[in-house]
């Protein structure tokens, strides 16, 4: 395997004391489709992107069983492209939400649903144990104690190595930690879309060595065309997307970036962002924009 200097430039993080991952990873959501409603992506190209990601040194892939479009599933693409998996590859997945075959969303999973989702991930990925499983909180859930306790039971049974939580606030993180250790938090977070509470949670995770994994690191609906982003990108000879990813890596030593794509060119662009080093002036300008937008 060829390790790209771009990936190693991002540094690494030790999750849970035994999972070493580069801070530049890969998100699998857009492998089956461009968006939840489509259109579909070319499965062969998506498999090629996965193989290229590993060639570039990516050792952390984030997925979920509910990442699918019609009959194409991200987990299956990962298995078809990469199984048997490289020894150092960490695959993280999520449970909690669910989608019917037509793509509509199910109610949040209860204990039984959590167990079923974990076993589905095991089958689709063709593994005996999942490296990291997040409980993804749905907006209707104020408490995550019951489904997270179900995950903790599966961890005790040896089916899960480490646990995480997603789409949570500080109180819900604390609720989960009363049940079992949490090694990673996955929340929506980007330079132009976060609140003071989001920033405080990132800082808290850094202080305690918990990985913070931003989803929609590039905004989720297309890279914003903000004048400050453009100016910083021009100074570095980089793209706006690369500046957004570089800002995330600079925001905290425990941030793990997982930009996703089904495009080979975008994959190369995202990975190269690990080598972009923002200076104090860049960070001050971007921070001022972030604070203004958070008001």
What does this entry look like structurally?
- The chain is of the alpha/beta class and 295 residues long.
- 41% of the residues lie in helices and 14% in strands.
- It is built from eleven helices and eleven strands.
- The strands form three sheets. A seven-stranded parallel beta sheet has the order 3-4-7-8-9-10-11, covered by helices on one side. Strands 1-2 form a two-stranded antiparallel ribbon. A two-stranded antiparallel sheet has the order 5-6.
- Strand 1 (12-15) and strand 2 (19-22) form a beta hairpin.
- It is globular and about 50 Å long.
- The termini are far apart.
- The model has no long low-confidence stretch (mean pLDDT 94).
Q: Percent range for helical residues?
A: 40-55%
Mean pLDDT: 94
The total count of helices amounts to: 11
The strand order across the widest sheet is: 3-4-7-8-9-10-11
Strand content: 5-15%
Count of DSSP E strands? 11
Multimerization state? single chain
User: How far is it from the N-terminal to the C-terminal residue, by CA?
Assistant: 46 Å
Secondary-structure element order, as H and E? HEEEHEEEHEHEHEHEHEHHHH
Radius of gyration: 18 Å
Overall outline: globular
Indicate the structural class. alpha/beta
Please summarize the sheet with the most strands: 7 strands, parallel
Low-confidence stretches: none
